[in-house]
Amino acid sequence: MDLKDETLKLSIVVPVYRSASILPVLVQQVQEVMVNEGLSDAFELILVNDAGPDNSWDVIRSLAETHKFIRGINLRKNAGQHNAIMAGFNHVRGRIVAVMDDDLQHPPSALIDIMRALEEGHDVCYTKYLNRQHAGWKQAGSRFNDYVATLLLGKPKGLYLSSFKAMRREIVDEIIKYDGPYTYIDGLILDVTQSITSVDIVHQARHEGESNYNLRRLLSLWLKMATSFSILPLRFATYMGFALAALSLVMVVFVVVAKFLHPEYPPGWASLIAVILFIGGVQTLCIGMVGEYLGRTYLKLNRRQQFIIGSTTWGRRAG
Fold first, then answer.
1. Structure pTM?
2. What is the pLDDT of residue 3?
3. Strand ranges inside 108-230, DSSP E
């Protein structure tokens, strides 16, 4: 990790994936905001190329040559948004660290409001969208994710876990101590501090193209949260086992009593098959939960890396 540079007030980490055409506009807008606030020499913009299929890395290198505040990191293979952010966290130098997306849906002007919220004494500041521009299915998924985070991680009710946020450098120093391969930044934040606030921002339309997040990636993110920071799913499986055992005992008693009282009852083939399928489905679900935990434990014990850095704009670094 780079040494802390006390002259820098702000480090901005942006995971980049298929955004070659958007990056110049993003850099221009961030620079304008920082210059207007008198911070032109007190910030850095860390662009982490997550091994996308376009020429984003070439664009980052070109921008770094003409803007001294840009530092680029190129990953050898796609690591995912949260692991790419961890790569950036390991190289930040500012006293405040912000995270924002590369699609310009997060207005750079809001960086100032977030910084002021942290200057009031909070450790972390999230953003809350006043007018979300995401598709309906994605908003529904976010609401479900919000409910699960409250249940599993102890997230304060009403706090929206936005990808646009900022935190004190001390929080980042604690977060990067996590060395597991399945990173969930918000879960790590909630593990580190309770001093969290939020500010309202206007959610802008995507500058161009479509979101890189799909249902599969959202499900993968949910699994990271559920299995990396809580054992509640395992407890759920245990409780379900107890409940099924109790239900089975009740059904056995019911069937025996019914047979004695009504010997003429025909054998219940349909109900028997339904019960077998139900119990089999629950057993498969529980085994899957256990397997998910074991698989993640196996990969961590084998020291699977969060990310592999191929090169940087300030030199080469082998991963």
1. 0.74
2. 47
3. 124-129, 165-168, 196-201
Residue with tokens 């390991």: 90
Q: Using CA of residue 192, residue 15, residue 106, residue 133, what is the dihedral sign? A: negative
Q: How many other C-beta atoms are found inside a 10 Å radius of the C-beta of residue 75?
A: 24
Q: Residue 311 half-sphere exposure, CB side, CA atoms within 13 Å?
A: 8
Residue that is written with structure tokens 């993003």 in the block: 26
Q: Compute the half-sphere exposure of residue 11: CA atoms within 13 Å on the CB side of its CA.
A: 26
Separation of alpha carbons 205 and 156, rounded Å: 28
Arithmetic mean of pLDDT over the chain: 81
Domain spans, the chain? 10-229+304-312
- pLDDT tops 80 at residue 37: yes
In CATH, the number for domain 10-229+304-312 is 3.90.550.10
Identify the pLDDT of residue 70.
Answer: 97
Virtual torsion, Cα 120, 171, 127, 208, nearest 10 deg: 140
